[in-house]
């Protein structure tokens, strides 16, 4: 899958699993429609809602040079009742 990087397992994302909502980090250039298409095609599920927010990269220092990690986008995908994504 080109757009989806990996699933996120935080306290909030584990709590959202009970509401049939799955959280994953995606490429920052991906759109909602692309991600929805990939999830429905790859997992064979029906998506009813998608929420996203963009997370800024963290500042990192390598010697005297100050750098930054890449920005990324996090999607919260809500599936129709009766559908589920197997654990990765």
Which structural traits does this protein have?
88 residues, alpha+beta, two-stranded antiparallel ribbon
Number of helices: 2
Q: Sketch the major β-sheet.
A: 4 strands, antiparallel
Give me the strand/helix succession: EHEHEEEE
* Number of strand elements: 6
Unreliable runs: none
Shape call: elongated
Beta strand %: 35-45%
Itemize the secondary structure elements and their pairings:
Layout: E1 4-7, H1 11-16, E2 21-26, H2 32-43, E3 47-55, E4 59-62, E5 65-68, E6 72-79
Antiparallel strand pairs: 1-2, 2-6, 3-6, 4-5
Give a written overview of the molecule.
The structure is a single chain. This protein is an alpha+beta fold and 88 residues long. 20% of the residues lie in helices and 40% in strands. The protein is built from two helices and six strands; from the N terminus they run E-H-E-H-E-E-E-E. It has helices at residues 11-16, 32-43, and strands at 4-7, 21-26, 47-55, 59-62, 65-68, 72-79. A hairpin with a 2-residue loop joins strand 4 (59-62) and strand 5 (65-68). The longest helix has 12 residues, at 32-43. The model has no long low-confidence stretch (mean pLDDT 90).
Concise account of the structure shown:
This protein has about 90 residues and is of the alpha+beta class. Helix content is about 20%, strand content about 40%. The radius of gyration is 15 Å and the shape is elongated.
């Amino acid at each position: 899958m080109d757009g989806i990087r990996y699933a996120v397992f935080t306290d909030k994302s584990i709590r959202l699993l009970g509401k049939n909502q799955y959280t994953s980090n995606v490429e920052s250039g991906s759109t909602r429609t692309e991600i929805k298409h990939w999830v429905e095609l790859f997992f064979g599920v029906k998506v009813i809602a998608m929420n996203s927010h963009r997370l800024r990269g963290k500042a990192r220092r390598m010697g005297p040079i100050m750098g930054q990690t890449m920005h990324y986008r996090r999607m919260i995908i809500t599936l129709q009742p009766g559908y589920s994504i197997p654990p990765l």
